[in-house]
Structure formats: C-alpha cells, structure tokens
Specification:
seven-stranded mixed sheet, mainly beta, four-stranded antiparallel sheet, 55% strand, elongated, single chain
Length: 123
C-alpha cells in the first residue's frame, strides 16, 4: 500500500508565504509525475503545479511566478513553496502522485491522493 501525507497548511496573511510538503511511503519502485491540486469552497478541484522525475515543472497561470514546486526523488517527497499569497489561494491543497509499486511491472502506475491540507489566506 502507498500513503501520501501532506503537511504545512495553515492561516497566513495576504502577501505571506507557506511551504507545503508531501511524503510518499509504502511499496514504491518509482514515482513519475507529482502534482499539487487545490479545491476552494464551492469550486472544483484544480491543478496547481506538477513536476516530473527529471524536474521539469508546470504551473497554473494563477500561481505562475508565486509558487514553486520541487521534489526529492531519494526521499519521495514533493514540496510547494507558496509566496505572495492571496485570499483567492484559500483552499484545501492535495498532493497527487503517479506511483509504480514494483519493478516487476515497470509500466503500471497508479495515482494516489493525500488527505489534503487546508490553506487559509486572510487578514
């Protein structure tokens, strides 16, 4: 089994920063793409940022230049550094990872989700 556990959410004032972390554990051979999603109250879940094994990243237009995603392949972790936070960034943030459990089936990957961590940007 695989688990993704997020941490780092909380309350921050507009213009402030937060750092979210997500650690994957369990039966893991390799992790392909890792992503952060968020879901604001009354809205659909949206993709915030993604990163592949080699380090190439992509971002939603709304966070480009303010958020930075990074990963540590040795530790199976992904981090989202969020700067210049705005009230509209308020949401529950979810970690998502495409994980290959076993080297015996290296082309079979499964997507896993974390439980979410709440970020509130308010004065």
């Amino acid at each position: 089994q695989v688990q993704l556990v997020e941490s780092g959410g909380g309350l921050v004032q507009p213009g402030g920063s937060l750092r979210l972390s997500c650690a994957a554990s369990g039966t893991i051979f390799r992790i392909n793409r890792m992503r952060w999603y968020r879901q604001a109250p009354g809205k659909q879940r949206e993709l915030v940022a993604g990163i592949i094994t080699g380090g190439t990243t992509d971002y939603a237009d709304s966070v480009e230049g303010r958020f930075t995603i990074s990963r540590d392949n040795a530790k199976n972790t992904v981090t989202l550094q969020m700067n210049s936070l705005k009230p509209e960034d308020t949401a529950v943030y979810y970690c998502n990872a495409e994980i290959i459990p076993t080297e015996r089936r290296p082309t079979i990957a499964y997507r896993y989700w974390g439980q979410g961590t709440r970020v509130t940007v308010s004065s």
